[in-house]
Amino acid sequence: MSAAAEDAVTEAPAVEAVPKRALSLGTGVSLAILAAALVAPIFVKNFVAFQMTMVMIYGLAVLALNILTGGSGQFSLGQSAFYALGAYTTAVLMENVNMNYALTLPIAGLVSFGAGFLFGRPALRLSGIYLALATFALAVAMPQFLKLHFLEHWTGGVQGLVIIKPDAPFGLPISQDKWLYYFTLAITVAIYVGSINLLRSRSGRALMSIRDNEIAASAMGVDVALYKTLAFGVSAGITGIAGGLSAIVVAFVAPDSYTINLAIALFLGMVVGGVGWLPGSFVGAAFIIFVPNIAESVSKGLSGAVFGVLLFIVIFLVPHGARQVAIVAQQLIGKLRK
Amino acid sequence: MELFINQVLAGISTGAIYACMALAVVMIYQAIDHLNFAQGEMAMFSTFIAWQLMQWGVPYWWTFLLTLAISFAGGILIERLLFKPLAKAPVLTNVAGFIALFAIINSVAGLTWDFTIKEFPSPFGSSAFLGSRLISTHQAGMIGVTLLMLVGLYLFFQFTRIGLAMRAAAALPESARLVGINTSWMIALGWGMAAAIGAVAGILIAPVVFLEPNMMGGVLVYGFAAAVLGGLTSPLGAVIGGFLMGVVENLAGTYIPEVGNELKLPIALALIIVVLVFKPAGLFGRAIIKRV
């Protein structure tokens, strides 16, 4: 299984050596999307802005999983645990310490980074299915842990915590939802650019060499243990920031929002977006947010079946996810230019 | 001491459920080299078919055989229709397919048979077994059937041509094709067998946990964990892992303070991870040695 999983991820490397023109095409599209994201809130209702914010937040969490799986080849079903950790760190700091919401995010990220780094140590010995089970255990344990009696004073127990949604600063005349949209957009862009650069850096190449062949990587002098745990840490850290953002935006945290279902949804997002292709994370996030709603509207009783069928259609048409669409589009545009 | 023995016995009887499921999990893992997350839902659906047949007045053992046949055919059908086209897709895409299948089966079963809990008869009855209150005749029968399936599978895989071909197709597909094995159909056969074993597991489990579309959720988690604990390559390991799971879970619930029902599962899983850290291929699994 582990060998097969490596093959699967290796099939389409995360960062390819792309010709200069294609690169500028990708950058152009990214900038166009960013511009659209900047002006979009002016034309939409608050609820739509809220949904778009959630797409970015889930997108960050999927991106984090992508760094772990697409980057270092490790598989995790425990992302919901780190997401919960980040969300609760932010919520507890805001509620009990009265800290400014923006300041809680770096702390949420650091706490999750630490937890992920520590978890990455014993997980070093596991791979493939075994690692999936270990991370799965983490995801199952987290909601129960948050409900524990002696933590109730901080976590609010089963009921969770209600947070006050922050207003736009400096008296800006926009609604809370739209302000949080821009706030999230800024953080998302920063983390996205950082992640892309991380995978293109020396460390990113070290990660990918571990993914492709661990033994060869260590023979080349890559500290396999360090980079694998670091990948876990970075992934958990970004997930934690996403969790913290979600706590602020939803203004509510409760243990049952962070069950294994969340981890499965994030995994589906990664597959739909294309494993190892960071821009796809946001496509995948949109899928896991909107498609269940669409399924619900098609048929209430059979919403699960409709969702399953839609998912099957997607993976039948594009087994490599949105990345496959992007590659085909790129080739088409390349042909048109000739 | 008596408490300890009682808890171990109770653990063994719940462990039988997990062992049953773990066996089905290992079975399909050997045939297709993936963990099928929809396995539990397939078993649940088979159990509903059995229930429906009995509602129509088919006698128990005929129902049993018919359900096995339908599940076998259904398993092959699912493979041919849904997963053969994905054979060349990445592994993670296949896993997404399993999740989709899970959602579809669960939702269709819910709509067809609704979510009310249904009683399911046991062929073994439910009186006390050998004078012990903790193990009923049904649970003893369940353990017996599980062991019987285990022996049957062992004989099938070790001593029949087709069993050997299936093992070859799972272990080294390319070499298997070169010696003339139709690997594609071996995989379909594996799906069929796994579905049939799942059906047996479902029919045995249903009298204990009652029949409803979500009945397999918890059981499957334990089944997976048991299979991984025992080593995914070993059916015997899966069965032993299942019993161990049951015992550990019960003992943890009894002896570790502050552990209610809620924390039983996380603790059992944590113990498994500790085992895996020391034996990464599970208790009975073969360590896979890769050529560099």
List keywords for this structure.
A: 76% helix, disordered N terminus, B: 292 residues, two-stranded antiparallel sheet, 2% strand, globular
Plain-language structure description:
- The complex is a heterodimer of chains A (338) and B (292).
- Residues 1-14 of chain A have low confidence and may be disordered.
- Chain A starts with a helix and ends with a helix.
- Chain A has helices at 2-10, 20-43, 46-72, 79-96, 101-123, 128-146, 152-155, 176-200, 202-212, 214-219, 224-250, 260-273, 280-298, 303-317, 322-337, and strands spanning 161-162, 252-253.
- In chain A, α3 (46-72) packs antiparallel against α11.
- In chain A, 76% of the residues lie in helices and 1% in strands.
- With 338 residues, chain A is mainly α.
- Chain B has helices spanning 2-32, 39-55, 60-83, 91-113, 137-159, 161-171, 173-178, 183-209, 216-230, 235-255, 261-278, and strands spanning 128-129, 132-136.
- Chain B contains eleven helices and two strands.
- Chain B has 292 residues and is mainly α.
- Chain B has a two-stranded antiparallel ribbon.
- Chains A and B meet through α1, α6, α12 and α14 of A and α4, α9 and α11 of B.
Helices and strands in order:
The complex is a heterodimer of chains A (338) and B (292).
Chain A: H1 2-10, H2 20-43, H3 46-72, H4 79-96, H5 101-123, H6 128-146, H7 152-155, E1 161-162, H8 176-200, H9 202-212, H10 214-219, H11 224-250, E2 252-253, H12 260-273, H13 280-298, H14 303-317, H15 322-337
Antiparallel strand pairs in A: 1-2
Helix pairs in contact in A: 3-8, 3-11, 3-12, 3-13, 4-5, 4-6, 4-11, 5-11, 8-9, 8-11, 9-11, 12-13, 13-14
Chain B: H1 2-32, H2 39-55, H3 60-83, H4 91-113, E1 128-129, E2 132-136, H5 137-159, H6 161-171, H7 173-178, H8 183-209, H9 216-230, H10 235-255, H11 261-278
Antiparallel strand pairs in B: 1-2
